[in-house]
Amino acid sequence: MTPLKLSIASTDYDHFRDFRTGDVRAQGIDHTWSTLRHHEVFARFTASRDWDVAELSFAKFMAQVTREDSDIIGLPVVCSRLFRFSSFYVNKNSGIKTVEDLKGKRIGSPEWAHSAAVYMRGWMHNDCGVKLQDVHWYQAGANAPGRVEKVELSLPEGVELTRVSDKSLSELLAAGEIDCAIIARPPTCFLEDHPDVVRLFPNYLEMEKDYYAKTKIWPIMHIMVMQNKVLEENPWVARNLLNAFNESKDNSLERMLDPAVSRYPLAWVPTYAREMQAMFGDDPFPFGIEENRATWEQMLLYTYQQGIAHKHVTPEDIFPKSIMTDVVV
């Protein structure tokens, strides 16, 4: 059989490395892999479907996969997953000490369909009593002005969103023009030790461990997605891709857990990795539907509540049916 030629794009993740380099092969597939910064991959795949398979923000994926006659489908392959209690940055002059103090405040994020912000807005709305309508929301580039929304939105009734094109969130926060920013990476003003800008939750690590212990939810930021036409013409391709991604990821974890060989330029990486294995289970970075069901379902709810997803769907609606068949070895 002539191998199927597929184009793939993602950031340079270690857990994809062996698949990308060819040390792991997806059966029946000959791939060409573009390694780019994730914002470029998101923008190009969203605008013009530049690849057959690509990394995509989970929130942006939900806006596109829930369209009528959507032309993409997901793979339950996790590129990036992070807890996000560390992502709240506040101006001390706003008097914000707790999440409840965010009621009536001005909060910014780089985009409305920004996965880190979606998770934290959802947590505020569903768990903390700070409803979406209780906040004046702002959208602007994180550290440079000019960032724009990449997907269509249908904001819930009563939600107020102001877009700022000439200033960054970092500038707005430092000047006190917004009270809080929810940003995946620390804003420049925080990194430069601006005297008025601090984390809302300096104990974020303890909060995140406690949150996982209670919910078993580990937020997923980016996943791999593919064009429907590839799957329609080759129904076997999703399972073969998933198998290769899993093998590549397992190899990465084995490297990280091995205390005999120093592969990473940091102290105690294997020790810390084994602590994570004890917390998350034998596979501390699982792919798959059932392995992540609670996390998938939470994001599907949050994106629908926030006017990003066009309808409230289930995990079975966003992943190929061909990967749901149990394979007994």
Features:
D-Maltodextrin-Binding Protein, domain 2, 11 strands, single chain, 35% helix, 329 residues, alpha/beta, five-stranded mixed sheet
Structure description:
- With 329 residues, the protein is of the alpha/beta class.
- It contains twelve helices and eleven strands.
- The chain has helices spanning 17-21, 38-48, 58-65, 115-127, 169-174, 188-191, 204-215, 228-233, 237-257, 269-280, 293-305, 315-318, and strands spanning 4-10, 29-35, 53-57, 72-81, 88-91, 106-109, 136-139, 160-163, 180-182, 197-199, 220-227.
- It has a six-stranded mixed β-sheet with strand order 8-7-6-9-5-10. A five-stranded mixed β-sheet has the order 2-1-3-11-4, with helices on both faces.
- The longest helix is centred in the last third of the chain and has 21 residues, at 237-257.
- The model has no long low-confidence stretch (mean pLDDT 95).
Topology:
Blueprint: E1 4-10, H1 17-21, E2 29-35, H2 38-48, E3 53-57, H3 58-65, E4 72-81, E5 88-91, E6 106-109, H4 115-127, E7 136-139, E8 160-163, H5 169-174, E9 180-182, H6 188-191, E10 197-199, H7 204-215, E11 220-227, H8 228-233, H9 237-257, H10 269-280, H11 293-305, H12 315-318
Parallel strand pairs: 1-2, 1-3, 6-7, 6-9, 7-8
Antiparallel strand pairs: 3-11, 4-11, 5-9, 5-10
